[in-house]
Write a structure and sequence with these properties.
The chain is of the alpha+beta class. It contains eight helices and eight strands. The chain has a single domain, classed as Alpha-Beta Plaits (2-Layer Sandwich), CATH 3.30.70. A four-stranded antiparallel beta sheet has the order 2-3-1-6, with helices on both faces. β7 and β8 form a beta hairpin. α3 crosses α4. The longest helix has 12 residues. It catalyses: a 2'-deoxyribonucleoside 5'-diphosphate + ATP = a 2'-deoxyribonucleoside 5'-triphosphate + ADP; a ribonucleoside 5'-diphosphate + ATP = a ribonucleoside 5'-triphosphate + ADP.
Length: 204
C-alpha cells in the first residue's frame, strides 16, 4: 500500500559551500517527491546538540562518516549554513533513506586517504583507502521525522540570546523562510546562484 508521508532532510554545510544543493533537490524530484518547506540557517552549537540528542547520536563522539575537517557532529552542523527540508510524497521516508545511503554525490563524498604500513621484511608500503563521508541526515522513520520537523520547523530557538526574526530581517547572506511563509534575506541572489547551477533549473 502506497503511503503519502512527510520526512525530514538536513543538508550539512559541505553541500552549501560546494553549491550542490541543486543536485540534491533534483534527486528528490526524480522520485516525484516535493520539498514543501525549506530553511537555510546557521545554528548554534547548543541547537546542534539538541538535534543530535533528538536523533540519539552522541554529540561528542567521533565517526569516520563526519565530513572533514570536523572533529564532531556538533562542529560540523554549527560550522556554517545548513539547509533543513520537509520532503513529501509516496513512501517518502523509505525513498529518501535509500537515496541517503548511496555512496555517491550529493549524499556522500569520498575522501582518499594514504595509509602506511610495513611488511614482514620491514619495508614500508603505501595503500590508498576510500572513506565515504555523509553530507545529509535523513529521518529513519515517520515518528522520527515528526520529532525532527517539530525541532527544526516548529521552533525559532536557534540562538536564545538574540531575536531570531530580527536577524532574519537583517540577513544579507542567508535566506530564511519562517513558519507562516515569511521570507527574509537575499532570495533573488540565491535564485541567481541556482540558475548558474547546470544541474538544476529553477521552476518559474
Amino acid at each position: 500500500m502506497i503511503d503519502h508521508q512527510k520526512t525530514f532532510v538536513l543538508a550539512y554545510p559541505w553541500l552549501f559551500r560546494q553549491r550542490s544543493m541543486g543536485v540534491l533537490v533534483s534527486e528528490f524530484e526524480k522520485l516525484k517527491l516535493n520539498i514543501t518547506e525549506m530553511r537555510c540557517m546557521v545554528v548554534t552549537p547548543d541547537f546542534a546538540r539538541k538535534h543530535l540528542v533528538n536523533i540519539k547520536w552522541d554529540p561528542e563522539a567521533f565517526s569516520e562518516s563526519i565530513p572533514l575537517p570536523f572533529a564532531s557532529w556538533i562542529d560540523c552542523i554549527a560550522h556554517g549554513p545548513v539547509t533543513a527540508m520537509i520532503v513529501e510524497g509516496d513512501d517518502a521516508v523509505q525513498k529518501v533513506r535509500e537515496l541517503s545511503k548511496k555512496q555517491q554525490l550529493p549524499f556522500q563524498v569520498v575522501e582518499r586517504k594514504k595509509v602506511y604500513s610495513s611488511d614482514s621484511r620491514g619495508l614500508m608500503k603505501q595503500e590508498v583507502i576510500e572513506l565515504w563521508r555523509e553530507t545529509v541526515y535523513t529521518s529513519h522513520s515517520g515518528d522520527q521525522a515528526k520529532i525532527d520537523i517539530d525541532l527544526w520547523f516548529g521552533s525559532t530557538d536557534f540562538d536564545e540570546t538574540i531575536d531570531f526574526e530580527k536577524r532574519a530581517r537583517e540577513s544579507t547572506k542567508v535566506v530564511f523562510v519562517l513558519p507562516g511563509g515569511k521570507t527574509y534575506g537575499p532570495l533573488d541572489q540565491v535564485k541567481d546562484v541556482w540558475k548558474r547551477d547546470a544541474s538544476y533549473k529553477i521552476k518559474q
